[in-house]
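Record type: ASSEMBLY
Status: queued
Input:
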Amino acid sequence: MADSGDGVNSTSSGKDGRNAVTDGPVTDPASCIKESKSGALKKSSRYRSRSLSASSTDSYSSGSSSDEDDVSPREKIQKTDKGFNDFCVRNINQHAFGRREIEIAEQEMPGIMALRKRAADDKPLKNAKIVGCTHINAQTAVLIETLVELGAQVRWAACNIYSTQNEVAAALAHAGYPIFAWRGETEEDFWWCIDKCVAAENWQPNMILDDGGDATHLMLKKYNTMFKMIQGIVEESVTGVHRLYQLSKAGKLSVPAMNVNDSVTKTKFDNLYSCRESIIDSLKRSTDVMFGGKQVVICGYGEVGKGCCQALKGLGCIVYITEIDPICALQASMDGFRVMKLNEVIRNVDIVITATGNKNVVTREHMDKMKNGCVVCNMGHSNTEIDINSLRTPDLTWEKVRSQVDHVIWPDGKRIVLLAEGRLVNLSCSSIPSFVVSITAATQALALIELFNAPPGRYKSDVYLLPKKMDEYVASLHLPTFDAHLTELTDEQAKYMGLNKAGPFKPNYYRY
Ligand SMILES: NC(=O)c1ccc[n+]([C@@H]2O[C@H](COP(=O)([O-])OP(=O)(O)OC[C@H]3O[C@@H](n4cnc5c(N)ncnc54)[C@H](O)[C@@H]3O)[C@@H](O)[C@H]2O)c1
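Status: finished
Output:
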């Protein structure tokens, strides 16, 4: 998850709200699904040849055999021992491994587990029918099972073709949840899976939990009548939120939406702290690189960029920043980083990381100038930050060296090390800290509860931020883990500050 992931889509959902294809033919969801119905389940050999077997990044339980990779889950007939078959996952038999992964995640997700316990009797999501489109991993599984515990019915697809933990998807399906996701989906599979979650027999969804806006996009485009029955959308990613604001501006948003991405608890913790930990892990796991003394350029000094910089600086890297915004550039300078144009450093750096949420930040021209062995990866939501398409030319050779690691080789023998084909590297090549996801998951659950239970008129067809008090509540759910003791305001202090003793403690414009 994480924008949690903030996640990438299999398609490159650009900030302009349109989908561009990076590695496949079409990405208009409607046309893609039509194709899939008539052209029926044709496997993409291109994708299979870059399949995800035997990888250093797969957990031993999820390592898919080449045998599995050859058969599309859509061609398999699978059911659980209870006869349930409303799902499509790589291999239902992996469910026991997945269940263990979920149990491990539960240990590190105290906030969402506390919420589950506190609200289980009230069932605040009774009658909620949620279409979910997020990363599917152990941590999101904890969220999904919490929503069900709180009374919701769910149907769930992945928002990223690479990030699904197959064994976790199997565990969820085995528990009886309609899950449509596997690692290594094609573009066509991707839209097919979301479609299966939106349109099903005896199913009229009334809530959407989205990460990247693809479920919203598909419903709006293909199932407009159903879309009008939606009571609320909760969106996690920068990109998805951007699309929602665009829809709202164009007068096309007919339901209230909650922008979870800009909740303080999400932005500060998921984007900053999670990326600070997972950037190192994903680079290590995929390349075995030594960081000390390496020159790294990070494009974008927002929350994600700041997290990456802190981690890499801590390990002795020489870090350069590129920025378009003078405020962030000044922050970077004051934090001790050199702010440069990409062209000025590109020939010397060992690692290039994009974290802008923008497109074509690293172009073919830049990659032509990189030195031999330069590692190139993306931490931003969309796979458009690095112009991967420009590398698919006859003069360059692609060599898969590991799952999620390609060497792209120039005619003179120079090679760059491209990670996850420009998709979110931390979600594709490593895992993200469960504790941080607990914060995001609790925020998402509260946003769903708020939108679902709000009295008519509280929210119009617009994009809202989670009320500050709920942000504070999410944080407070996580404090017991650290045995953190909050100071309470005295009556005198509360009066002096003009605050309610129970919060909110800061005005909405406070930046933390
Ligand atoms: N990998 C993850 O786990 C994860 C987690 C959260 C968010 N994200 C994604 O990471 C991206 C960044 O998120 P954020 O919270 O840091 O956003 P942000 O808006 O805080 O930061 C992005 C920064 O990039 C700068 N920028 C934009 N275009 C640029 C360009 N061409 N060159 C250089 N700098 C440029 C902006 O000025 C901004 O400061 C988003 O796409 C977000 O969805 C990823």
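Annotation: The first helix runs from residue 29 to 38.
Annotation: The longest strand covers residues 129-134.
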